[in-house]
Design brief:
The chain is mostly helical. The protein is elongated and about 45 Å long.
Length: 177
């Protein structure tokens, strides 16, 4: 139940934002600076969640998962910052990145109230839902909308990594039951 609710919330936030809705025209697609900001924001959200899990998680597997999330998302965001600097692009805040940040802040507050096994299960369930939503947005909106080949390539690389994260989170979640 919690996983379905988290997936629904994450998907609703990601997919209800104007920048990620299926567009009828090219003018409605997010721009590369907006895409860069959305992708970077999504990484920061998972970095913050991983830091929280490193402090609160009890399960060895959950702690290891959080360590992987922190390492991988920091590495991808570092690459993203290097790319926008190279391309002389300023990431552009937008409704989607703002909505993602607000939802993530609310989720961190909710998770902070939990301890022990309850925290571990809720954190991992949220990670499963979050990665499903982000991966879907990358596949259907962000990658197809990216105009710059290097940005598109970075997003495709990120997608492969994040699909692995989703599988890892699903495995950890199954082990916690």
């Amino acid at each position: 139940m919690f996983t379905r609710r988290s997936a629904a919330i994450a998907a609703a936030i990601l997919l209800s934002s104007p920048a990620l809705l299926q567009s009828a025209t090219a003018a409605d697609k997010p721009t590369d600076p907006q895409i860069a900001h959305i992708a970077y924001t999504a990484g920061v959200i998972d970095i913050n969640a991983a830091k929280q899990a490193q402090k609160k998680a009890r399960s060895k597997d959950v702690k290891a998962f959080a360590e992987d999330m922190l390492r991988d998302h920091e590495a991808v965001n570092k690459q993203a910052l290097a790319l926008v600097k190279k391309l002389n692009v300023t990431p552009e805040d937008n409704d989607t990145s703002k909505a993602l940040s607000k939802q993530a802040s609310d989720k961190l507050t909710e998770l902070d109230k939990l301890d022990g096994a309850a925290f571990d299960k809720a954190y991992v369930a949220n990670e499963v839902a979050y990665h499903k939503a982000v991966n879907g947005a990358l596949e259907t909106q962000l990658i197809p909308s990216a105009n710059n080949a290097e940005l598109k390539s970075l997003l495709q690389t990120g997608l492969k990594i994040f699909q692995g994260h989703q599988q890892h989170a699903e495995h950890v979640a199954a082990e916690l039951k």
